[in-house]
Amino acid sequence: MNGCPDGANLLTDNPALYEARFPDPERIAGRWAEACLARYGAGPRVLDVGCGTGRDAEHLHRAGRAVTGADVSAAMLAHARVHHPGPRYVHADLRRFDLGEDAFDAVVCLDSALLYCHTNDELDGFLASCRRALRSGGLLVAEMRNGAFFLGRTELLDAPRTDCFTWEGVVHRSTTTLRVDRAAQLLRRSRVWTADDGSPPVEQRSAWRLLFPQELRRFLDAHGFEVLGLYDRPGPRTDPPWHEGAAPEETTGAPGTADGDRLHLVARLRAPR
């Protein structure tokens, strides 16, 4: 079995394969982000950090916003420029970036990209970078896995998950195993890829930070953000998924909970004191 080199990822290194594995023809993630921005009156300048293939950045651009998409993957950025034009695409590491001071009215961070900040220092780096990039009163909109879901819940951990899809006539299969690394507060993933074209199996490993709602609030407050919304559903990857006009079920009061496996955040950068 081949292993991916450090930092390599079969899907993110092959953006067309990524979009085939995770299709979003209705652009639910981009529409959800735009609905959040509109609901809280965000200005037009938007940074989509961890933009991936550019699908959501393109949707926000088509909604009339001046969008910059940022990602650490050169392959993803090259794909985005060709297949999802309109935004400006730049290379940047979300754990610490500098794209100008007061340059944006909103920062969007979708699909658990924020959780690639594995350490407290990395999370501080992300939030400090967002604070620098945003104007006073700017918004941070994020969507991610919910660390609180794994408190006493094991259904995603009990057995490997197998998925299958066909791309360019080749059947690709993945077997994914998740485990909680409590000491590091990470959800670690091992995924083995096979294909029916005779290529050898490939194993890749990755991880997400497990953040809990109150912990996230504390980090945000320390960096000058006021939480406007923090809720588990509905969102782009909930069941059922978000739809136009759907109201969030806030964790801040009844009947909202943080039981779902996704967490959705809207926060505003406070004015300097």
TrEMBL record:
Keyword S-adenosyl-L-methionine attributed: yes
Region (Disordered): 236-261
Signal peptide annotation: none
Record GO terms (molecular function): methyltransferase activity
UniProt GO BP: methylation
InterPro entries: Methyltransf_25, SAM-dependent_MTases_sf
Name used for this protein in its record: Class I SAM-dependent methyltransferase
Organism classification: Bacteria, Bacillati, Actinomycetota, Actinomycetes, Kitasatosporales
